[in-house]
Design the sequence.
């Protein structure tokens, strides 16, 4: 068993090429931390990867590649401003760093700075061959930016209203859909009572489940939402997309941890 464990570790380490390891003067310990960080990141455990990268950062704050990797972790965890801070520092240290323009474009895109996002996306796009461009998502990102600009140029006045404790919770509640008769209301939530009580390694939030509420004509409001009955919800991600007009069918998104959709 011991021999097998050693062989497995050797296989994992050999899967990471020398070019994948950040050049550092920190010695063997730092290099091992960097390899572990890359593996954690590949497994979508971004918080663990970030902790390891930060350890090395203490002695290598001017390492362009390390700043880039820390920025990637923050971007994956949804901290856009932190991601930009490290991406921009990385670019100042090495403006030829592979992937930096795409990363900056994505961060500016998520921040809502569409003009800067388009600039960075185009810089990244200009370096791609025709073959690589045909397989790359950057064209899609550019179209998203242009579409967003168009919509933002024609703002719509809306009022957002909390539906109260029967529907809203302290956790993320989103993707609502109401049946045509206005009596059935489904939505997605990441609450602590999710089936299985599991958390996603991506952001450490609870897995998504689908919740249902029925309109109560006696009270003139929505009844307390409950996890939808049956086998719809699993111990992994289950999210609502829409509901059929008659309220008898729902369209769902599922993403078990062993399947990428």
Sequence:
């Amino acid at each position: 068993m011991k021999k097998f464990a050693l062989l497995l570790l050797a296989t994992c380490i050999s899967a990471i090429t020398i070019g994948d390891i950040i050049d550092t003067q920190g010695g063997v310990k730092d290099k091992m931390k960097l390899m572990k960080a890359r593996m954690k990141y590949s497994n979508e455990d971004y918080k663990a990867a970030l902790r390891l990268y930060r350890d090395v950062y203490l002695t290598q704050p001017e390492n362009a590649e390390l700043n880039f990797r820390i920025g990637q972790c923050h971007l994956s965890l949804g901290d856009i401003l932190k991601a930009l801070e490290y991406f921009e520092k990385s670019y100042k240290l090495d403006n030829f760093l592979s992937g930096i323009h795409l990363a900056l474009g994505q961060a500016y895109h998520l921040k809502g700075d569409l003009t800067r996002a388009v600039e960075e996306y185009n810089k990244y796009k200009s370096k791609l061959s025709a073959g690589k461009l045909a397989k790359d998502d950057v064209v899609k990102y550019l179209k998203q930016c242009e579409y967003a600009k168009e919509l933002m140029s024609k703002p719509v006045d809306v009022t957002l209203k909390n539906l109260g404790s029967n529907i809203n919770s302290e956790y993320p509640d989103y993707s609502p859909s109401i049946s045509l008769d206005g009596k059935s209301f489904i939505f997605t939530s990441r609450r602590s009572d999710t089936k299985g009580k599991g958390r996603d390694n991506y952001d450490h939030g609870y897995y998504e489940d689908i919740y249902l509420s029925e309109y109560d004509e006696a009270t003139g409001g929505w009844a307390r939402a409950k996890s939808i009955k049956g086998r719809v919800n699993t111990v992994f991600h289950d999210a609502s997309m829409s509901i059929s007009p008659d309220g008898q069918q729902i369209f769902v998104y599922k993403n078990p941890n062993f399947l990428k959709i």
Observations:
- The chain has nine helices and seven strands.
